[in-house]
Design goal:
Order of helices and strands: HHHHHHHHHHHHHH
Number of domains: 2
CATH architecture of the largest domain: Up-down Bundle
Strand content: under 5%
Distance between the termini: 51 Å
Oligomer: single chain
CATH class of the largest domain: Mainly Alpha
Helix content: over 70%
Number of strands: 0
Mean pLDDT: 86
Number of helices: 14
Shape: globular
Structural class: mainly alpha
Largest sheet: none
CATH superfamily of the largest domain: MFS general substrate transporter like domains
C-alpha cells in the first residue's frame, strides 16, 4: 500500500509547472519568497507539530479530570474519559498555536507567509458566509458523525454475530465497495439534478435510517440475507451522501485558497466524529449494540436540522 501511495508523490515531483500568463507572473514576482523563507516555514510546521505531540504526552490533565468528574460530579466513566481527553486535545492545540505565535513574534518565520497560508483562507471563508459560517462549520463537523461512530465497531459486531472473515470480506468489503460506487454515481446525478443541499439532506436522513437497520440486524442475528440488505443500504447511502458532501465542500472553497480551505474542511469533518468514535467500544459495553445503533441514529438528527436551516436560509435569500 505504501508503494501504491508513492505513485502520486513521484508523479507530483516529476510533473512540470503549467505555463504562466504574464499577469500571473507579475503577481508571482510580487509575492515571491526565497528558499530560506520556505525552509523557515517548514521549520515552523515541524516545531509546532513537535510542540503539539509534547503537550499531548506530558501536559496530560485527563486522569485528574476523570477523577474529579467521577468523584465530585458523579458522572459515568465513559463521559468522564471523553471529556478529559477532549480537554487534553484542546490544551495540546493551544500549546502548538502559542509556539507558532511566538516564532512569528521573534521573526523566526516570515509573518506574511503565515498570514497568507493560515489567516487569509479563514478570513476569506468567514467574510463570504457572514451570517451562516458557524452553521456551515457545524454541518461540516457533524455530517459524517453517524457513519464514523458506527463504523468503528462494525467489524467487531459482524464477528459477534458469528459471521466468518470470508463472509465479512465478501459482503462488507467486496459487495459493499460496489454499493459505495453505485451510491457515488447516484449521488452525483441527483446533486446535478436537485442541488447539493437537498441531496445532503437526503444523505443525512438515509445515514440515520440505515443505522436503525443495524439495530434490527442485532435483533435478527446471524442471517446472511439481512447482512446483505444492511450493507447494501448502508454503503449505498454512504456513497450518495459522500459524493454530495464532497461537492458541497468544494463549493465552499474560494479559488484563491482552494487547497488550504479544503484541507481545513476535511479536517473539521472528521475531528469531532473520531473523538466520539474512539469511545464507541466503551459505549457498546455499557448499553449494548442495539441501543448503541439507536444512539448513532439519534446523532444524525441535529445534522438534518442544520441542513433544513441552510435550505430555508438559501430560499429566503433568493426571495
Amino acid at each position: 500500500m505504501a508503494a501504491c501511495m508513492s505513485v502520486g508523490v513521484i508523479t507530483t515531483l516529476i510533473m512540470p509547472e503549467p505555463p504562466k500568463r504574464d499577469e500571473v507572473q507579475a503577481i508571482d514576482q510580487e509575492i515571491f519568497h526565497s528558499t530560506l523563507d520556505y525552509a523557515r516555514f517548514l521549520f515552523l510546521f515541524m516545531i509546532t507539530t513537535a510542540a503539539f505531540i509534547a503537550a499531548f504526552v506530558y501536559l496530560n490533565p485527563a486522569d485528574a479530570i476523570v477523577r474529579f468528574i467521577n468523584t465530585e460530579l458523579e458522572f459515568n466513566g465513559v463521559f468522564a474519559k471523553f471529556f478529559g481527553q477532549a480537554i487534553r486535545l484542546l490544551l495540546s492545540l493551544s500549546t502548538a498555536i502559542g509556539v507558532a505565535y511566538l516564532l512569528v513574534v521573534i521573526n523566526a518565520v516570515d509573518k506574511v507567509m503565515v498570514v497568507d497560508t493560515y489567516i487569509k483562507p479563514v478570513a476569506d471563508f468567514t467574510s463570504r458566509y457572514k451570517k451562516t459560517f458557524i452553521i456551515v462549520l457545524l454541518l461540516i463537523g457533524f455530517y459524517r458523525i453517524a457513519d464514523i461512530v458506527l463504523g468503528v465497531v462494525a467489524l467487531v459486531f459482524y464477528e459477534k454475530l458469528g459471521f466468518s472473515e470470508t463472509q465479512i470480506a465478501d459482503v462488507s468489503k467486496t459487495f459493499g465497495l460496489l454499493m459505495i460506487i453505485v451510491g457515488g454515481f447516484l449521488g452525483g446525478l441527483l446533486t446535478a439534478r436537485f442541488g447539493v443541499l437537498r441531496i445532503l439532506l437526503l444523505g443525512a436522513i438515509l445515514a440515520a435510517a440505515t443505522n436503525i437497520l443495524f439495530m434490527i440486524f442485532a435483533q435478527v442475528g446471524n442471517d446472511t440475507t439481512m447482512f446483505i440488505i444492511v450493507i447494501a443500504a448502508d454503503n449505498l447511502s454512504a456513497g450518495l451522501a459522500g459524493s454530495a458532501f464532497i461537492a458541497y465542500l468544494s463549493s465552499l472553497t474560494s479559488m484563491s485558497f482552494t487547497a488550504m480551505q479544503y484541507a481545513l474542511f476535511t479536517s473539521v469533518m472528521t475531528l469531532i466524529p473520531k473523538l466520539i468514535a474512539g469511545y464507541s467500544g466503551s459505549i457498546v459495553k455499557n448499553i449494548g449494540y442495539e441501543y448503541f445503533f439507536l444512539f448513532t441514529a439519534v446523532l444524525g438528527i441535529p445534522v438534518v436540522l442544520l441542513i433544513i436551516y441552510l435550505i430555508m436560509f438559501e430560499q429566503n435569500q433568493k426571495t
